[in-house]
Amino acid sequence: MKLSHMNAHELKALLATKEVSCKEIMSSIFDEIDKREYDVAAYIHIRDKKELFTEAEKIDNRRLKADNIGILDGLPISIKDNICTKAIPTTCASKMLENFVPPYDATIIKKIRQADGIIIGKTNLDEFAMGSSTEHSAFKITKNPHNTDYVPGGTSGGACASVAANECIMAIGSDTGGSIRQPASFCGVTGLKPTYGRVSRFGLVAYGSSLDQIGTVTKNVKDTALLLQVIAGVDSLDATSVDESVPNYCDLLSLNGKLTVGIPKEFFAEGLDHEVENAVKNCISLLEKDGHNVIEISIPHTPYAVPAYYITACSEASSNLARYDGVKYGYRATDTKNLMDMYLKTRGSGFGAEVKRRIMLGTYTLSAGYYDAFYLKAAKVRTLIAQDFAKAFELCDIIISPVAPTAAYKIGEKADDPLAMYLGDIYSVIANLTGLPAISVPCGWTTSRLPIGVQLTTRALNEPLLLSAAYRLEQLLATVA
After folding, report:
1. Which of 205, 299, 378, 391 has the fewest other C-beta atoms within 10 Å?
2. In the β-sheet with 76-80, what is the strand arrangement from edge to edge?
3. Which residue segment(s) compose the domain that 303 sits in?
4. What is the CATH classification number for the domain harbouring 356?
5. Structural domain total, the chain
6. Cα 383 to Cα 117: distance, rounded to the nearest angstrom
């Protein structure tokens, strides 16, 4: 097997016995990039090849000297291009930040570097993380590595495609309404949205501040535990980060006892593709045969999740994106008559259509006379949904559901119908509204050979249980593959 096709733990084992080197792994990754990147278009920016090989060689030399090496062992990692990286462009896939090079690293970037991960480049996304298909980038459309006629999902489509196409070993994405889990499902990789506050958001370019969460994209659950181990933890630079100790997730992957698994009846209603439904029900059957107790539960406010999410997210986006005015940094329109004209032309030409749509929606819902009718009501619905889950977790340990109603769809299929695209977030936005941790695990294929993912959700800060349940399900699926 090619080194680029191996998972992180397989490579770590080979590195430990000096059977391979970081340079050899990097070379294998670049072979894959040379072969696939033109068609897949996962990256916005790939770092200088010579510089990357120098970094890999330094870690190899330290290993030969028996120096301490961080737990990421010099493995190549891609970073979604809405996370600040010092001296490496951070564009958010927008003309507005096309030439922006941050003067600092996000907290998680510092942690990855300290753990000796090598950042290979920045991956494509829907502009400012607004979209569900990675078609709304200002620079390129990322394609699904399994069939380049199809979308990879979004907004972390580039991150998931880079892992699925073996153009890196692991990736970092962000998840505001399913932006890691949905593309992970579409691309056939494992995607985790941690508990809100479990991972620092300092250096993440804000979209919806009460919803955004940095997370991981990997080839399996064990690698997810490894990468989460590196990036989790409290951060004095992020007031919303949670001051809780970080357990050793890799040591906690074995399930202790049997689970009670909740099946939300509202998630298996009209609109769910039958192939997706069958794949998820197969997972439920495997868990049941494994001795776990399966029960039906209810999340009665599910129908209100999408409108509550989009009102909340767009309102927060309207506020967060006000900073892009042509004055402070980023793109500025030229040939303007006065300050107001400069504002209008900068924002009119600097933002893409989807971003402008969401800013206008958010500005409307926050405007005088409409705040109570929209934003305040969405906040109340959010509380009701959180209460639904609290009641559900009195009955069960884990909730299992689809990640999205369908597998990947063709590029352009929903580009002119934003409402249809928004409705595709029905199963994923709830974890962001509630702040709960959720993971997408590959669980099957459609008849047209496109991946399908299954979603597991549990209580806040209970990532050890979430990962151990996902790990067990992954093992069960491997026995029937």
Report:
1. 391
2. 43-46, 118-123, 76-80, 170-175, 213-218, 190-193, 438-445, 451-457, 398-402, 260-264, 293-297
3. 1-481
4. 3.90.1300.10
5. 1
6. 39
